[in-house]
């Protein structure tokens, strides 16, 4: 096995070695004419020409993620009607994909998203009520439904949470949260939120 040694003025050397096994041909690697930038790597075109390139971004580098909440209590929706919860204040929105006017999440990257929504009724001491919380894709009724949770403290409140993985195409698909139940105001605090993020690209 042949070695190419680069001797340092301090006495030590750097060695480049040929492959352990005899190559099937005589490869010729052509180095770039200039140095690359910090963080780049050396790549080949498959024909021996080497060049510096920037690593491709991973989904986590550009993935949409958001969390929204209410800025104040939401007025009681009509009884026994599915109503969009008016999440109108962003906690964060990495790609500007959540619209606080329409209360929709419309991601600009196609993939599978985990979405979670929650709410609780305002004005404590309600007894538990029959209600449904849904996350809908493009307004269609989904398979994901809410589960009842009691919010403790001296003002006991009843609310719902729901979570599911939804495929969104990144070019128009959107998601909203709907509530169905009694005509009661919805509380603005921590139990009322809508959040999500990309878990896998299409």
Query: Which shape, going by the Cα principal axes?
Result: elongated
Q: Going across the biggest sheet, name each strand in turn.
A: 7-5-15-10-13-12
Query: How many angstroms does the end-to-end distance come to?
Result: 46 Å
Supply the helix-strand structural class: mainly beta
Report the C-alpha radius of gyration, rounded. 28 Å
Question: Quick check: average pLDDT?
Answer: 86
Number of helices: 1
**Fraction of residues in β-strands:** 35-45%
Poorly predicted ranges? none
Total beta-strand segments: 15
The SSE string, one letter per element, is EEEEHEEEEEEEEEEE
Explain this structure.
This protein has 202 residues and is mostly beta strands. Helix content is 2%, strand content 41%. It is built from one helix and 15 strands, in the order ββββαβββββββββββ. It has one helix spanning 59-62, and strands spanning 3-7, 13-17, 41-44, 50-53, 65-69, 83-84, 89-93, 98-99, 104-105, 111-120, 132-137, 147-151, 157-168, 175-180, 193-201. The strands form five sheets. A six-stranded antiparallel sheet has the order 7-5-15-10-13-12, with no helix packed on it. A three-stranded antiparallel sheet has the order 6-14-11, with no helix packed on it. The protein has a two-stranded antiparallel ribbon with strand order 1-2. The longest helix is centred in the N-terminal third of the chain and has 4 residues, at 59-62. The radius of gyration is 28 Å and the shape is elongated. The chain starts with a strand and ends with a strand. The mean pLDDT is 86.
């Amino acid at each position: 096995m042949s070695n190419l040694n680069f001797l340092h003025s301090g006495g030590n050397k750097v060695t480049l070695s040929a492959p352990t096994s005899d190559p099937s041909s005589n490869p010729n690697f052509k180095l770039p004419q200039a140095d690359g930038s910090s963080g780049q790597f050396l790549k080949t075109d498959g024909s021996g020409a080497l060049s510096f390139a920037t690593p491709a971004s991973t989904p986590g580098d550009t993935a949409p993620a958001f969390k929204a909440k209410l800025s104040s209590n939401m007025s009681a929706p009509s009884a026994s009607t599915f109503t969009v919860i008016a999440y109108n204040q962003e906690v964060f929105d990495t790609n500007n994909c959540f619209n606080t006017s329409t209360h929709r999440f419309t991601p600009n990257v196609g993939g599978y998203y985990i979405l979670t929504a929650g709410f609780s009724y305002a004005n404590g001491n309600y007894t538990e009520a029959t209600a449904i919380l849904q996350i809908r894709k493009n307004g269609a009724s989904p398979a994901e439904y809410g589960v009842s949770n009691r919010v403790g403290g001296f003002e006991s409140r009843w609310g719902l949470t729901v979570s599911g993985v939804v495929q969104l195409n990144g070019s128009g698909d959107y998601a909203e949260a709907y509530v169905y139940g009694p005509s009661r105001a919805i509380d603005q605090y921590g139990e009322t939120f809508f959040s999500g993020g990309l878990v896998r690209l299409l």
